[in-house]
Each structure stands twice: as C-alpha cells, then as structure tokens.
Amino acid sequence: MKNKRNIVVVVTLVLFGVFFLRAIQQKEQTIKEGRLVLFELAPVDPRSLMQGDYMQLNYAINEQLRASGIDRTTLNKRGFVIVSLDQQHRATFKTISSKSLAELPLGDSLLPVKYFNWDGFTLSVGAESYFFQEGKDTLFDRAKYGGLRIDSEGNSVLIGLYDEELKIIE
Fold it and tell me: pTM for the full model?
C-alpha cells in the first residue's frame, strides 16, 4: 500500500514538472517568435510596501472597450480582443470576439489577443504588474506603453515598458 502511494506521488510530481517546463518553454517561444505589440498604459500608483517597487498596469484598451458601446452583459469570460497595429506596433482596439481563432476574420494589420474578463468589463490582455529594482520608480514614471509579445494563438508575454519615443525603459 505504501509503495503504491509513493508511486502515485512520484508520478504526480513528474507530471507537474513536465507541465511546468512546457509552460516555460511556451512563454520562451512567445518571447522569441511573438509579434511585438505596444499597448498604451493608463498608469496606476507604482509602489507597494510588501512587494517593493512595481507598477500596476492598466491598459488603455479597457477605456476604448467601454467607449465602443459593446453590451457588457454579452461579454464572455474568455475570448479575443482584435487590435489593429500601426507602423510602430501600437495597438488600437477594433472589436471583441468569443469565436475560435480559426473563425476570426484577420488580415495583416489585425491581431487577436486572448483576454480574460474577471470583473465584468476589464480585460486582462497581458501582465497586470511590472516589478522593477527599488529606487527606479522615477525612471518608470515615464512609461507610456506596455510591450507584449503575442504568438499566433493570441497568448501574450510582457517584455518591458516603453516610453513616449517607443524606446524600452531599462
């Protein structure tokens, strides 16, 4: 009986490790091969006593969604926000869809980004916090865009914050 339990524990740990490593591999691949998209930020207080210096990210796309007139009662918990990209990779909200990726009418300048809708009308299209070294808060006060890499499935990874001149802040 004890041997069976040990086997179950070992198999569970191995499976957990495989899934964890696969998730890391997918994020690394998105960072390497994903398309750069700059989402305008609506800044929030960049300080937390417990976590150190960080910036809570609020993407301006949420305001664009509210202004679009889309009925919030029909908004699914998960789906795609369709954005258009300009020459500088800046995203502009176009529409929202709960269709599968294969069903979306996309062109060269339109890109689907997976969203999660937790509170009824705020989209989470990427990381919601950006942590930085203590004492660098004034440097990140000038952040205007969140730079995300987005893969062909609509998955996103935050790679950094960008200033008004579209240069990464380091």
Answer: 0.77
- Tokens 């609020």, residue located: 58
* 168 occurs within a structural domain: no
Among 119, 62, 67, CA closest to 91: 62
For residue 88 the two structure tokens come to 């500088």
Q: Are residues 69 and 99 in the same domain?
A: yes
φ, ψ of residue 158 to 5 degrees: the values are: -70, 125
CB 151 within 8 A of CB 34: yes
Q: What one-character-per-residue DSSP string does 99-130 give?
A: S-GGGS---SSEEEEEEEESSSS-EE-S-SEE
Nearest-angstrom CA–CA distance, 141 and 88: 21
- For 125-168, the pLDDT digits (tens) are 888 888 777 777 778 778 899 999 998 888 999 999 999 999 99
The one-letter code for the residue type at 126 is: G
Query: Other C-beta atoms within 10 Å of 49: how many?
Result: 5
Do 73 and 9 lie in one domain? The reply is no
Size of the chain in residues = 170
Are 144 and 40 in contact by the 8 Å Cβ rule? The answer is yes
